[in-house]
Amino acid sequence: MKKYILSMFLFLILIVSACSNGVKDSPRELSDVISGGSVLGYTYSVTKTQDTYSWKIGYKDKNSILVENDDNANVLDNYMTAVNNAYLEWIELILSAAYFLIIAVSMLILYKKKRSMLKGYGFLLAMMGAIALYIAVQAYFDLSRIIEDLEYYYLILTR
């Protein structure tokens, strides 16, 4: 029985491979999206068609399509890096703020229910909360700096 199922499976693979069309697209017709990113309204996507790279950058509903050349290659790369860094800082800000809220709620519950337990571990929880708050504030300031860089690069590229 196992040999029968195995032979049917191999026969099916042979039929599918024999029926497939061997014609492939020419390289002139292919265009691939290489990279893309989005954060807080700023977006980019890089598409390669033959030997040229076209960039679609945007902020909210305003989109621009640019072809990469020697003049704008460095600014486009900086824009892409800034979008990716802003995304990472945004995630860090959300996670650290959520962690701080979890610790604050935990301390509130311990304060209401078991004050004796809060006396033993309250200092540790307060230190963890302070560290989470510090990381969140630092991520906020880093994110605001990166957003300013994004605005600068976007204005350079769209003018």
Textual characterization of the structure:
This protein has 159 residues and is of the alpha+beta class. It has one domain (26-158). The protein is 65% helix and 19% strand. It is built from 3 helices and 4 strands. It has helices spanning 2-19, 73-113, 115-158; strands at residues 31-39, 42-49, 52-59, 62-67. A 4-stranded antiparallel sheet has the order 1-2-3-4, covered by helices on one side. A hairpin with a 2-residue loop joins β3 and β4. It is flat and about 75 Å long.
Question: What descriptors fit this protein?
Answer:
alpha+beta; signal; 159 residues; four-stranded antiparallel beta sheet; transmembrane helix
Mean of residue pLDDT values: 82
- Please indicate the count of domains: 1
Rounded to an integer, what's the Rg over CA atoms?
A: 27 Å
Extended strand count = 4
Task: For the record, give the distance between the C-alpha atoms at the N and C termini, rounded to a whole number.
Answer: 71 Å
Task: Give the % helix.
Answer: 55-70%
- Structural class comes to alpha+beta
Number of helices: 3
Residue share in β-strands: 15-25%
Shape: flat
Widest sheet: strand ordering: 1-2-3-4
Output the helix-strand order: HEEEEHH
User: What does the largest sheet look like?
Assistant: 4 strands, antiparallel
Low-confidence runs of at least 5 consecutive residues: 25-29
